[in-house]
Specification:
Elements lengths: L14 E4 L5 E5 L4 H13 L3 E5 L5 H12 L3 E5 L2 E5 L13 E2 L4 H11 L5 E5 L10 H9 L3 E4 L7 E4 L8 E3 L5 H12 L4 E6 L6 H8 L4 E5 L5 E6 L10 E2 L4 H13 L4 E8 L6 H8 L3 E10 L2 E9 L7 E2 L11 H8 L5 E5 L11 H11 L3 E4 L3 E5 L11 E2 L5 H11 L6 E3 L12 H7 L3 E4 L2
Parallel strand pairs: 2-15, 3-14, 6-7, 10-11, 18-19, 22-23
Antiparallel strand pairs: 1-23, 1-24, 3-5, 4-5, 7-9, 8-9, 11-13, 12-13, 15-17, 16-17, 19-21, 20-21
Helix pairs in contact: 1-2, 1-3, 1-6, 2-3, 3-5, 4-5, 7-9, 7-11, 9-11
Bound molecules: shikimate-3-phosphate and phosphoenolpyruvate.
Shikimate-3-phosphate binds next to helix 5.
EC number: 2.5.1.19
Subcellular location: Cytoplasm
GO molecular function: 3-phosphoshikimate 1-carboxyvinyltransferase activity
């Protein structure tokens, strides 16, 4: 039987959480997933050596590392560091086998951009979740550049792409708020003669632009009075390895610990070294509006990015309205925000959520189903969600949540069970390893109660 994203596989690992005493302690979250993928991609492409510290060793990122190895990069772990000897500009090799990206949207889409202009064939495969996700959003601009696409089912994995002899530079206006689409076009621009330009009407995470500059690409970013960004990249320049590349801690992983500390009575938790790039801090802003006590300590620069330590204390929360304009800066945090809202006084309204429908699962539907299973009053719209909370968690919990191969659904509902009256179980915790393999250990270390479920 083939794996199906809507049913857990026979190797699924159900897990439950139950109401726990105060969470206390200081923890560091692992490296940022977005930046870690890009470290393998840029490091593997550049001439010379890149030495990375703080890389996220999650399954998604390791899949990107394997793909870069298959195309000629030398990548080795050396104690706490990863050493990448890149192929040098334009010198990627045609991979022998297929590139298997598992569960990873970012890895697969950015790599499609990277190899798009190469005059060889690359085949992409992934798990049941990734095979359902739309790839047309990156394939369409690649087609404009001359790339051919062969797919059994329209613009879904498994698929193969083959570049033209010489790719054509394009100017591409990104039609949805997506850093993956922006980045795929920029990666494609690297091996394309002339200037590739991306117009981004709504700013999304800017790691690709920043890292392009850091690895020595000729890239120019302009923002007009209306906030529209234009990113122009000169193709076929020389990228150079970065001798000491530092990956800051992932704010999207920190989010689970932050919300757990806010919800569990008496908690006082410090999360060290969280990335505070403003394109990633929408959840912190929202939680503070809800009344959360989150202190931003020791703000500093690390590897060219803002980072800080977050001291989080249990706080009564109130419902707020989260504007659609904030979605790009907290896109992966809505499932855990919905859990926080389940314990807030009043109703929280979230808008502009259309992109949640095309993540590892349909996150809007998966969150709504998880809330329903655990007695949380909510309403789901096409692109919005309202959640009405119960501040003392009374009557909440007792449900089993279908995770649909989605790590963030699993972690969010495990956080819910730490504060709800009755335990919460998830049908499969295995996907947590794609982005946050340390999650269970860190939660238990802070005093959270997690246990195998049936
Ligand atoms: O560029 C990236 O690293 C990412 C972009 C976002 O996806 P979209 O571009 O689809 O919004 C985000 O959800 C994903 O986890 C990581
Ligand atoms: C959407 C996510 O990742 P990706 O698109 O890389 O699978 C995520 O990590 O929440």
């Amino acid at each position: 039987m083939s794996a199906d994203a809507s049913h857990p596989s026979p190797s699924a690992r159900p897990l439950a959480s139950r109401r726990t005493g105060a969470l206390k302690g200081t923890v560091s979250v692992p490296g940022d997933k977005s930046i870690s993928h890009r470290a393998f991609l840029f490091g593997g492409l550049a001439a010379g050596r890149t030495r990375v510290s703080g890389l996220l060793e999650g399954e998604d990122v390791l899949a990107t590392g394997r793909a870069m190895r298959q195309m000629g990069a030398r990548i080795e772990r050396d104690g706490a560091h990863w050493i990448i000897d890149g192929v040098g500009n334009g010198a990627l090799l045609e991979p022998e086998g297929v590139l298997d990206f598992g569960n990873a949207g970012t890895g697969s889409r950015l790599t499609m951009g990277l190899v798009g202009p190469y005059d060889f064939t690359t085949t992409f495969v992934g798990d049941a979740s990734l095979s359902r996700r739309p790839m047309g959003r990156v394939l369409d601009p690649l087609r404009e550049m001359g790339v051919q696409v062969l797919a059994r089912s329209k613009d879904r994995l498994p698929l193969s792409i083959r570049g033209p002899r010489v790719a054509a530079p394009i100017t591409y206006r990104v039609p949805m708020a997506s850093a993956q689409v922006k980045s795929a076009v920029l990666f494609a621009g690297l091996n394309t003669p002339g200037t590739t330009t991306v117009v981004e009407p709504v700013m999304t995470r800017d790691h690709t632009e920043k890292m392009l500059a850091g690895f020595g690409a000729r890239v120019h970013v302009e923002t007009d009075a209306a906030g529209v960004r234009t990113i122009a990249l000169e193709g076929q320049g020389d990228l150079q390895g970065v001798p000491d590349f530092v990956v800051p801690g992932d704010p999207s992983s920190a989010a689970f610990l932050v919300v757990a500390a806010l919800l569990v009575e008496g908690s006082d938790v410090t999360v060290r070294n969280a990335l505070m790039n403003p394109t990633r801090t929408g959840l912190i802003e929202t939680l503070r509006e809800m009344g959360a006590s989150i202190e931003i300590l020791n703000p500093r620069l690390s590897g060219g990015e803002d980072v800080a330590d977050l001291r989080v204390r249990h706080s009564p929360l109130r419902g707020v309205s989260v504007p659609a304009s904030r979605a790009p800066s907290m896109i992966d945090e809505y499932p855990v925000l919905a859990v926080a809202a389940a314990f807030a006084d009043g109703t929280t309204r979230m808008e502009g959520l259309e992109e949640l429908r095309v993540k590892e699962s349909d996150r809007l539907a998966a969150v709504a189903a998880g809330l329903a299973a655990n007695g949380v009053a909510h309403e789901e719209g096409e692109d919005w969600l309202t959640v009405t909370g119960r501040p003392d968690g009374s009557g909440l919990g007792g449900g089993r949540v279908a995770t649909h191969l989605d790590h963030r659904i699993a972690m969010s509902f495990l956080v819910m069970g730490l504060a709800s009256e009755k335990p919460v179980s998830v049908d499969d915790a295995t996907m947590i390893a794609t982005s946050f393999p340390e999650f269970e250990g860190l939660v238990s270390g802070l005093g959270g109660m997690l246990e195998p479920a049936s």
